Amino acid sequence: MYFSSSARKITIHGNSGEAEFYSPLDDVYDKVGDKQFLYVHKSYIVNYRYIQKLSYEQVVMFDGSVIPISQARRPLIRKQFMEIKEKEEV
Prior knowledge:
Layout: E1 2-6, E2 9-14, E3 17-22, H1 25-32, E4 37-41, E5 44-47, E6 51-54, E7 58-61, E8 66-68, H2 74-89
Antiparallel strand pairs: 1-2, 1-5, 2-3, 4-5, 6-7, 7-8
């Protein structure tokens, strides 16, 4: 569903639990960014398919997790999310 990062320790939050490994979050995004993931914060990458609600300041995931959207990324995230939705409708 999403990746979180704390001091180079990445936690994968998935449907069947969590897993951890060490890597810069930028490297993770380089690998998954073209697969419908959004880099919403310096510490979070989310899979848009698991977003229950997107607001200006945060996303709420289907598991109830609330993830902040950094102020600098808000316009880009909104644009990317809309582009993804438009592609799905076609």
